[in-house]
Design goal:
The strands form three sheets. Strands 1, 2, 3, 4 and 6 form a five-stranded antiparallel sheet that branches. A hairpin with a 5-residue loop joins strand 9 and strand 10. The chain is built from 22 helices and eleven strands. Helices cover 62% and strands 7% of the residues. Among the domains are: 195 residues, no CATH class; 30 residues; 73 residues. With 549 residues, it is of the alpha+beta class.
Length: 549
């Protein structure tokens, strides 16, 4: 498919939804109040959007999966509809899969594997998985689909071009958040299509949890793993959403399984900083011994130490009802754009504090309800949800959904609190700096402050104080003056058009000329006073940073 054909198809499929979302905010796209629609209309549109994304292929399926937890971008019912989008496609022809394996390994399939099962046990948009045998060892072979890399690169290029114009025409925190998601996706999808990265992720997980007998991941067969082929140990188990019979038979204990799952994700997030970013029932199994087996390590999130520290500080600020501490942590985590005034987000922080306060005092409450209220706040206010919390929230909602599947009285928040108490020492050790390091940092900051104060006194004595504007402030003032100058010129032109039209009408007595001239003049006046100011600004400044990685 050529670039022009694909661009036309993507634009034709997505433009009606873009126009509908814009009219939800302003009836005439740039003017008026938002169009009022019944909940049923949004539900129908959500289903149509989901089917459209599925029809557009692997790029948009994977992108939709990332958006399914971003309530700061999409509200309900769109999130629920997109989250049900299944990454299942018809399998690729076996002869092409065999040819790809032989090209990667440099040997015929029969020389590498004792047996190779043609029908795949799983087929997704990026790759498919086959069972095989090497000697007496059962393995699975994950193969990247032929041509998928070129298709995704083309779709990403088209997506960035569309976002370029959206950032020019409709700059708001929803568009900025969507742009950040696509940027992140462009990086993560590249890693996910290199199966050597997935092999490294599994090996790293096994190093972190080598002393924990309750969890496991497949062992990689390194000698047969390449960029587009991954060979790993075959592990059997029951999907976490199909454990009812084992619970009823007494083979497993419900409380132990849920505690293991919750402890696993909390430890990955806050202790190891290495989070499995694709949690769904198909990737979480429980084997015969009761161990939790985690599959599909293509999407992994690195959570740096400073991010874990900031998350912990925000959590502690919430616990002590410290509004300023919450706002400081939100700025540090990048939830708030530096251009947004502190006062503008104070109410949003207060709303988050109130939500968490209700969660502490209202008795058993669903994790999903608390997260939904928090995400609604992010959608309403100019806040951007950090990607680390996005994936952790997805895992929390998944685990609670599994719990409610087996126990209608499952207390997800209570379980999280109990697990946090059990992991408290490890979390504090990994997210808090050593006392000696903290003392050195504090002494350094004090020394720097004293030097700055001394320089301030010396300059005061020499009368060398100068007032300097931050470049952003200077640019803002310059932009404001340019806007006013453009508005003034347009107003003068509109007035001159009206006067000239009146003079010409007196001379030629043409009603058509009078109507046309006054219509042009009226349009210019409307454009000056009603069209949002961003349409008069330099569009290139909005596009800065929108680049394909």
């Amino acid at each position: 498919m050529t670039r022009l054909t694909r661009t036309t198809r993507v634009f034709a499929r997505l433009f009606p939804f873009l126009l509908a979302f814009l009219r939800d905010r302003k009836r005439w796209v740039v003017l008026g109040r938002g169009a009022r629609r019944r909940p049923e209309a949004h539900a129908v549109r959500a289903e149509r959007l989901t089917s459209t994304l599925a029809a557009l292929g692997p790029t948009f399926i994977k992108l939709a999966q990332m958006l399914s937890a971003r309530a700061d971008i999409f509200p309900e019912p769109y999130l629920s509809a997109v989250s049900r989008l299944q990454d299942q496609v018809p399998p690729h022809p076996s002869n092409q899969i065999r040819a790809l394996i032989e090209d990667e390994l440099g040997r015929p399939v029969g020389d590498v594997f004792e047996t190779f099962h043609e029908p795949p046990i799983a087929a997704a948009s990026l790759g498919q998985v086959h069972r095989a045998r090497i000697g007496d060892r059962e393995v699975v072979v994950k193969v990247l689909r032929p041509g998928v890399e070129e298709a995704i690169a083309l779709d990403l290029d088209i997506s960035f071009r569309i976002l370029f114009w959206l950032n020019i025409l409709f700059p708001n925190h929803h568009i900025r958040a969507l742009t950040n998601v696509v940027r992140e996706f462009s990086v993560r999808i590249g890693e996910e299509m290199d199966l050597r990265v997935e092999a490294e992720n599994m090996e790293r997980f096994q190093r972190y949890f080598r002393d924990d007998p309750a969890v496991d991941a497949p062992e990689v067969v390194r000698e047969h793993t390449r960029r587009r082929v991954l060979v790993m140990e075959y592990l059997e188990g029951t999907k976490v959403d199909r454990l009812q019979e084992r619970f009823e038979s007494g083979d497993l204990k419900f409380e132990e399984v849920m505690e293991r799952l919750t402890s696993l994700y909390l430890r990955m997030m806050m202790v190891d900083g290495f989070l499995h970013a694709d949690p769904h029932p198909g990737n979480l199994l429980v084997d015969r011994e009761g161990r939790v087996v985690v599959l599909d390590w293509g999407m992994v999130l690195q959570v740096p130490r400073w991010t874990r520290e900031a998350i912990l500080r925000v959590a502690l600020a919430v616990e002590r009802d410290d509004l300023d501490g919450i706002i400081n942590g939100m700025y540090q985590l990048g939830m708030i754009s530096p251009e947004v005034a502190r006062g503008d987000v104070r109410e949003a922080a207060a709303e988050i504090l109130a939500i968490m306060g209700r969660a502490r005092t209202a008795g058993p409450q669903r994790v999903q309800e608390v997260i939904r209220e928090i995400l609604d706040t992010f959608y309403t206010w100019p806040l951007v949800l950090p990607q680390e919390l996005v994936y952790f929230f997805r895992a929390a909602v998944l685990l609670e959904g599994i719990g409610f599947r087996y126990d209608p009285n499952f207390d997800g928040l209570g379980l999280i609190r109990r697990v946090i108490r059990s992991l408290r020492r490890e979390i504090l050790r990994e997210t808090s700096r050593e006392p000696v390091t903290m003392a050195k940092d504090l002494l350094g900051e004090v020394s720097q402050a004293l030097r700055s104060f001394r320089e301030l006194l010396i300059r005061a004595e020499r009368e060398e104080f100068r007032v300097r504007l931050h470049p952003r402030d200077a640019q803002g003032q310059e932009r404001f003056l340019h806007l006013q100058a453009r508005r003034l010129l347009l107003s003068i032109f509109a007035t001159a058009t009206a006067v000239i039209t009146a003079i010409l009408f007196i001379a030629v007595r043409s009603p058509f000329l009078l109507i046309a001239g006054f219509a042009v003049s009226l349009f210019l006046f409307v454009f000056v006073f009603l069209i949002p100011t961003h349409l008069l600004e330099n569009p290139l400044r909005h596009a800065r940073g929108i680049r394909m990685r």
